[in-house]
Amino acid sequence: MNPALDVTIDADVVQHTSKIRCAGARYDPGGGGVNVARFVRVLGGSVAAVFPAGGPTGAVVTDLVAQADVPVRRVPVKNATRESFTVNETSTGKQFRFVFPGPALDSAEQDQCLDELRADAATAEIVVASGSLPPGVPVDFFNRVADICRELGVLLILDTWGGGLRHVQSGVFLMKPSLRELRECVGLPLETEAEQLAAAHGLIDRGVTQAVIVSLGSDGALLATPHESYKFPPVPVEPISSVGAGDAMVTGITIGLTRAWPLVKSVRFGIAAATAKLRMPGTAAFTSADVERFFEMVPEPTQITGEIGAVRD
């Protein structure tokens, strides 16, 4: 619902007041769902991207998505699509990410997005709703998406944050919050692994979702299902850019599910895709060969046994 034109540049030093001379600019279509659609295509999946777009930046994003061989279901909107800006400080290896809020969407534009989704999802196996909500879109919007998916019998994978995550009540097959997003969702610090799993199982117990994968960055991931819990170790690599790594994880999981793999195996493929994405600049897509290579390196997860108490917000 909130695509972006992702601009990535390199600078020797980032400091206030002085002009910062930049080099190596690249432009990619971005936003969670757009990234997932592009990455699914790289892995050979059949996919369509449904998103609102407006203004000159919206036209560029639409063209770049189409150039990635992804069928575009663009919903025209009055206001201009946002940009996101990433600066790689070459002298330190630090990365600075500036994320704009996005254009305001009115109720008619929101309804048109849902109508387009309903039309496309009627022939889909999985819907991925990923990214933030732009201004003007109510926090229960993804709950409306979940209702559509439930009516059509389509699995919904949800990767969002803030109010968009907290106000989903039911109908999700898999949620993929980061640890920070899970903490914000339940309003608790979740300092231990047991507390993190308890919070994830709490979402399952309340009927919000059937499973939760919590991404832990360089520490790997946790998976909670109704009766099991797993810890997935990471594949150690030297990252070039972390932009889009979470979207890559969602992509790998989605592709695994379309191959009728068990969820645990699909999550391992998701970790492989995220690892491959870490080795790419900006939001540039990985290669299928790299994902398959890293997949062979992803260890089997550790099943966590013992009683998991639910954490309530």
How would you describe this structure in keywords?
single chain; 313 residues; alpha/beta; seven-stranded mixed β-sheet; four-stranded mixed β-sheet; 37% helix
Write structural notes for this entry.
- The protein has ten helices and 13 strands.
- With 313 residues, it is an alpha/beta fold.
- The strands form three sheets. The protein has a seven-stranded mixed sheet, with helices on both faces. It has a four-stranded mixed sheet with strand order 2-1-5-6.
- A hairpin with a 5-residue loop joins strand 10 and strand 11.
- Helix 8 runs antiparallel to helix 9.
- The longest helix has 16 residues.
- It starts with a strand and ends in a 10-residue tail after the last strand.
- The relative contact order is 0.13.
- The mean pLDDT is 95.
Reading the helices and strands in chain order gives EEHEHEEEHEHEHEHHEEEHHHE
The biggest beta sheet is recorded as: 7 strands, mixed
Globally, the shape reads globular
Rounded to the nearest angstrom, the radius of gyration is 19 Å
Structural category: alpha/beta
Q: Regions with pLDDT < 50 over 5+ consecutive residues?
A: none
Helix content: 25-40%
Q: How are the strands of the largest sheet arranged?
A: 7-8-9-10-11-12-13
Distance between the termini: 27 Å
Count every beta strand, where a strand is a DSSP E run of 2 or more residues: 13
Average predicted local confidence, pLDDT: 95
Number of contiguous helices: 10
